Amino acid sequence: MNALRGRVQAQLVLGLIAVIAISVVTIMWVRRSSLDGGVAGVQGPEQPINLPPIPNFPLDALEPAVRQQFQAAVDRVAASPLDARANGRLGLLFHAYAFYALAEPCYRRAIGVGGTVAPWRYYLGLVLLERGEWTEAAGEFSEYLAVVPGDIPALLHRADAYRSANRLEEALDGYRLVISRSTEIAQAYCGAGQILYRLGEFEPAVEYLKAAVRLAPKYGTARYALGQALRNRERPDEARRELQLAEEYQNQEPTLDDPLARVLDRARIGAIEALHRGIDLLQAGEVDEAIDLFETAIRSAPDLAEARAQLGAALLQQGDLPAAQGSLEHALELEPNYVEAIYHLGLIAHRRQDYAGAIALFQRTVQLRAEHFDAHLGLGTDLPKLGQTTTALEHLRRAMALRPHDPRPYRRLASVLSTLARYEEAIAALRLGLERRPEEVTIADRLAWVLATCPRDDVREAAEALELATKVCRRTNNQAPQALDTKAAALANLGRYDEAVVVAQRARQAALARNNEQLADQIQRRLELYQTAQPYRQPGGQ
Amino acid sequence: MRADGRLVPILMAVLGRLVSITCGMLALVGAGCGELNDIPGPANSNQQSATPNTGGPPVTGDDWFVDIAEISGLDFVHSTGATGQYYFPEIAGSGCGLFDYDGDGDLDVYAVQAFSLSELSNADGANADGLQRAEGSNRLYRNDLEVGSDGVLTQRFVDVTDESGVGDRGYGMGLAVGDYDNDGDLDLYVTNFGPNRLYRNNGDGTFTDVSNAAIPPEDRWSTSCAFVDYNRDGYVDLFVTNYVNFSLLENKICFSPGGRRDYCGPQSFDPVSDRLFVNNGDGTFRDATVEAGIDLAFGSGLGVVCADFNRDGWPDIYVANDGNANQLWLNQRDGTFENVALLAGAAYNANGMAEAGMGVTAGDFDLDGDPDIFLAHLFGEHNTLLVNDGTASFDDRTEQFALASMSWSYTGFGTEWTDLDSDGYLDLFLANGAVKIVEQRANEPYPYGNPNQLIVNLGPSNFGFQDVSDRAGSVFELIETSRGAAFGDIDNDGDIDILLSNSNGLLRLLRNEVGSCKSWLSLRLVGNGSSRDAIGAEVRLIRPNGLDLVRRVHGDGSYCSANDLRTHFGLGHDRGPQTVVVAWPSGVIERFSGLPAMQHVQLHEGEGEARP
Predict the structure, then answer these.
(1) Largest alpha-carbon pair distance within chain B?
(2) Nearest residue on chain A to B354, judged by CA atoms?
(3) Do B250 and A337 touch (CB under 8 A)?
(4) Cα separation of A242 and A229, whole Å?
């Protein structure tokens, strides 16, 4: 009873605060309206006194397509300052281009003039979230939910707003309400788990967060929160794994079906927007769509070097080397020292097996940007082809220092060192890589290969090679042809030829299934050795 | 033993609000004691009036901080040199420093300057190497503070740049101050977009540029830096934070979402490794970056703070990176470090997101004896409070302590845990200024201004912070692009004043008008066995009726700036003698008793009561 009374009292207090807040806002609007003129003088005399002024904003600096878009919206408001839709659409534009402080008064005007206000309240809530006005945002979402009850995005945003405002109980109730309506929303489990963690209820937090990552395995925030909770439960190994995954999936969030948010996305046009979207799509592997957007950006802004460079990179991914080269060279005409364009031209030369050309371009890249990891890696790969192994090793070691957790420099370094018969150093490099990336199967496989097939008897470690190879095969579900090939070599080296033959046959089939005939042929030659009870050794001598 | 024999009251006890400061012919009468901590705070047993206050400080009409830069002779105006090319270093701004270069007992002012990069970009092959301006330089101002027989302070700054020889002409970013050669005076390391400089103090008011002879070159884009005796050999070493790999030849063109030209962000460039220089003990340094393992993790570094986060007696290093994971380098006690930030909860915010780390500070705000971390971030992120559990395991508790919403609209740079109202609790100051065009100011010539913020710690019983900027004075109404901030007692009146650098703006000196209303104790530690400047020493002030106050001797933290190396304790209303326990970097622990409140006191290593 006391609790109920307390809650009623709290609600009364909140109500009173809300009334005061509304009064203050109204007074502020009145004051601002009397002090400020609106943009382009569109503030009509018929405007109700409690509407905020239309924000003043210089359109000149915007790119032409965007400027036209804004000008049309401003003109509509000028023509009909009391039209909710006109005001709301101007707010949408500001909102879409992240001008949140300017979007807010437009939405308030749209709401203030009446009519269908629900969507504008939702957008206003989103803008207030972006501006850190979390309590106000929660209020707007509540208003919206009064008209559109049960709307999942609004429920979720309201709970987020409460959480940010440190109103944890309301936030937790909010997330649980979402879960009661849909058990598929990972964000709700994550939010609930984060609050329970904050409240010190670690075990329930872990359960909620595990549910979130079950629904969305690449949900970085949920992984991180789970890692934190496990750390506090003194489960360091699990915590470490989750935190590393969180780092890998950082900024990846599950999608939410939100029609109103889609309207916002569609409101953005222009070269820069197209460029940024294209980059996102390219990173997501959607190359065709990315190319369309880069071409859109170039049509809108022909001098945008980055768009041409990105287009070149995308075309290179598609394998269209001439078109890629043309686009990259055009980027360099616009910005002669555009490092990424130079690097990608180097990649094109590499693909064409013009190693001298590739090396020159990679060298130019590191000359301009001494810590360009990919260029160092490229030099480490191509220099040995021209016999310049010493310089190659320097670049690979530089790449290792730049990205100590990237497996590629370790593998390539080991490969170059092996060709020089410096097997101990190759093995040491791979062991270092494995120490830094213990889960990295490609390094483990490479190490197992060297240990199993090294021509020098004093270097080979057949038992360790088999142990490593077996682990790699297990982790690749016995489907990776290279891993199976390595395991077969290790078995043969131990004199277990019958088993080696079986595993090598499986490796060959796996290679053929992947259309890797070159590897299949190599495995076949090794298979023939095993069938005659001979181990495989890398070329080279004692 | 009592430390009375070595107590050196540098100035007379300050007579509260009776003190006035004059500058030349102009007398500045201090404001009334409007108290920051009259907002709801912990009950103090000695407090005369315990009446709860729900509305903030008494309305006295007086400002809590007053800018005295101009009237005291600080005429420095920073220029980014921007000419519309949007070179990335232009938006980073510069820092400033407070240190007693001439050993006369008051803090002098060092202001870092930039210049126009456009002219250099036209030169053949111009890049970050050897960047030097033709005119203008960093400036050193000597503090000629005098105390009259009537207790009246006269404060005047005199530009001594030319005679001192520290007018560095690089594209200036920041500085660190420490006595690297243990000769009793403070030396200076200056970071630049371009070659950094080391200036050895000659002890006679002049410095010698020993960059070429004494330390390996660092000519990348360096930002904040810190002297730290990481190997505890009695000589301070040097950690230098580097930002990104940018050259004028490679200036990228970036836009705001609507297509308007604006500065790029750090993601447009590759991050670069920080540097660690170990002091050889003979007046030179050597590069220990690789042997210490510092090259194994790096980001776009802007801030650095050194403290013993895991309480093992060895200094650790925390680096704030802009847009990528922060590093927590735990000292392995063998000359190497291990970055444990991810597992320690110190790499990202509570959502596992990298934020735009700019300024950073470490201090025991919650009185549990360990250093907690506060990071200043970008508009649209919140500043982040990482609370230490004493083992270098951190939790992001920004929202619980009500620090999230108050920073959402601003971009923060310089910041410091410092007890501005001398109530014993560490408050926060934030030097704010945007790095992208502020949409509401798009019509202005330099549309990056934000107001600065003063945030008071309500104390453990209230468990939170309150932004009191709107009551702290007209200097908090200014909309400027602030970057560096240095903290120290510029007028030796017992409270912490603030030196503030503004991009394309005036250097400001915010004199604290409220901190000396309460009791205080200021300590200057002198090492003997530890480094002479005692950087890294931990001082615990014993409070029989409350939680102990723990402070460390440091000049680092904030953004590209150097703080007063003296240790300040706010004592509230306790004016009685004080006891402190000092853990010197050498490992020696000593107790000093009977220290008089409201005094500046020197403590010498080896002259206290030894503690096990």
Answers:
(1) 70
(2) A250
(3) yes
(4) 10
